[in-house]
């Protein structure tokens, strides 16, 4: 069985924020000679299609009660304009449970605000769009002493990122999950952060 990375999809999600992690996982088929260990599956509250901010229409692979928690290794929460909707409460409850159980949870942009409202960020080093973003929009947030001014931050099994931190967020996720050896991850990150073709050559030459 493949290791499952669940990506929660919700109305008005910022689909571009998850682009780098999708690309990184897709590289398994190239770098591991088709021996893929990981799969990304979308999960949602219903089978009704959602519309992203960028205009894509996405239908989830499964519902929340269909998640295979025996084979899951991570839950990713994208930014969205609709995190304050009550229909997202169930996935947030699951996220809290996964954090307590040592399962990786990744949150970016607006999803960090949702976690701030649940006091999660009061316990972990974290980042977001800015400290002001959290203090202005979350009445429950009191974790400013743990705020780190960085595009993405790892603390235990919680990885947070700003809306501009999708690349570093993805790097931390694939490092945490050991998707690739460190040399491959560095070549991948260096290529996408600089655009220098020498790093692409390094990346492709390191097929496992």
TrEMBL record:
Source organism, top-level taxon: Bacteria
Gene3D superfamilies on file: 3.40.50.880
CC terms in the record's Gene Ontology section: cytoplasm
Cross-referenced InterPro entries: Class_I_gatase-like, DJ-1/PfpI, Prot/Nucl_acid_deglycase
One term of GO molecular function: transferase activity
Alphabetic keyword roster: Glutamine amidotransferase, Transferase
Pfam families reported in the protein's UniProt record: DJ-1_PfpI
Keyword Transmembrane helix: no
Residues in DJ-1/PfpI domain copies: 5-167
Stated name of the protein: Glutamine amidotransferase
Gene source species: Clostridium combesii
